[in-house]
Design brief:
By secondary structure, the protein is an alpha+beta fold. It has a single domain, classed as Nucleoside Triphosphate Pyrophosphohydrolase (Alpha-Beta Complex). It has 3 helices and 8 strands; from the N terminus they run H-H-E-E-E-E-H-E-E-E-E. Strands 1, 2, 3, 4, 5, 6, 7 and 8 form an 8-stranded mixed beta sheet that branches. A hairpin with a 5-residue loop joins strand 1 and strand 2. Helix 1 packs antiparallel against helix 2. The longest helix is centred in the first third of the chain and has 16 residues. The chain is globular and about 45 Å long. The N and C termini lie far apart (about 30 Å). It holds the Pfam family NUDIX. InterPro entries: NUDIX_hydrolase-like_dom_sf, NUDIX_hydrolase_dom. GO terms for molecular function: hydrolase activity. It comes from Nocardia elegans. This is NUDIX hydrolase.
């Protein structure tokens, strides 16, 4: 992993993103300011907060979205996680996380940023922090069958118009 390439990819994605709403614009500006002052802000070890990579995985026909019941969070959320060694870009991290957590090969990432969110969380390091989450829209191949990984309590397709009540998934 190149700390510089991850940082540059996150900055470029945010600079090129055109948010649809004022709250999204505020999140974008806050994340750019954060990255401007945190050269190591894409690394899990950056305790004040760090960029994370999420995948909003849609079925081939986009009628369903794949969600994981996260054991630490206790809610249905999109797939994703931390940037790791070997990830040259945040897009690489999102695709790796989606593939690892879904067990689905052949996922395709749409170009550009799908959205951005900020979440307070206590990571596996045990320190309260913030996840500055960059989201990517990913499409599964036709007939894809997910396989739950050890990182999930449950994993399933949900109709886009019937998501679990406690989910916080960005759909456009």
């Amino acid at each position: 992993m190149s700390t510089e390439s991850l940082h540059a990819s996150a900055t470029e994605l945010l600079e090129n993103w055109k948010p649809a709403t004022h709250p999204e614009q505020s999140v974008r500006e806050a994340m750019l300011a954060f990255l401007g002052s945190a050269p190591r802000g894409c690394l899990r070890e950056h305790a004040p907060g760090h960029i994370t990579a999420s995948a909003v995985v849609f079925s081939y026909d986009e009628r369903e979205v794949l969600l994981t019941l996260h054991p630490r969070v206790g809610r249905w959320i999109q797939l994703g996680g931390h940037c790791e060694p070997g990830d040259e870009t945040v897009v690489d991290a999102a695709l790796r996380e989606a593939t690892e957590e879904s067990g689905i090969a052949g996922l395709e990432v749409e170009p550009g940023l799908y959205g951005a969110q900020a979440h307070p969380i206590t990571c596996s390091l045990g320190v309260p922090t913030r996840h500055l989450d960059l989201l990517f829209k990913i499409r599964a191949p036709r007939g894809a069958v997910p396989v739950r990984s050890a990182e999930s309590t449950d994993l399933r397709w949900w109709p886009v118009d019937a998501l679990p009540a406690d989910s916080d998934v960005l759909l456009r």
